[in-house]
Amino acid sequence: MTSPLSPEEIETLARRRASAKLGWYVHAAAFVLVNALLFAMSRYAFGTRPWSIYPLLGWGLGLVLHGVSVFLLGSGDGLRERMVQREREALQREQAQKQQDQHRP
């Protein structure tokens, strides 16, 4: 069971998620622009052989995986969030143990 987030934690998490989404949008824009240029080059500058499909497919797979990690796995119940929560709880237990040890005679 997770404890409620403090306002600072909510702010940090919201900023991290917004940055991840913005990063994906920048990635998608670069993908469209570069692949449009490659398509134009393969079509008009270097003949009609459609070699530009290969970078489009490879980069497209990377873009899809990036989107999955941002929009599906980064929603808050993802593996990363659970791992962060476990580490936070472990650190809190260690801190509580140290405080108890200091108060023992």
UniProtKB/TrEMBL annotation:
Query: Mind listing the UniProt keywords for this protein, alphabetically?
Result: Membrane, Transmembrane, Transmembrane helix
The protein's superkingdom reads Bacteria
Q: Which residues form the 2TM domain?
A: 14-87
Transmembrane domains' residue ranges? 22-41, 53-73
Q: Which Pfam families match?
A: 2TM
- InterPro entries (alphabetical): 2TM_dom
Question: Which intervals of the chain are annotated as region Disordered?
Answer: 86-105
What is the protein's name according to its record? 2TM domain-containing protein
Q: Which species expresses this protein natively?
A: Acidovorax facilis
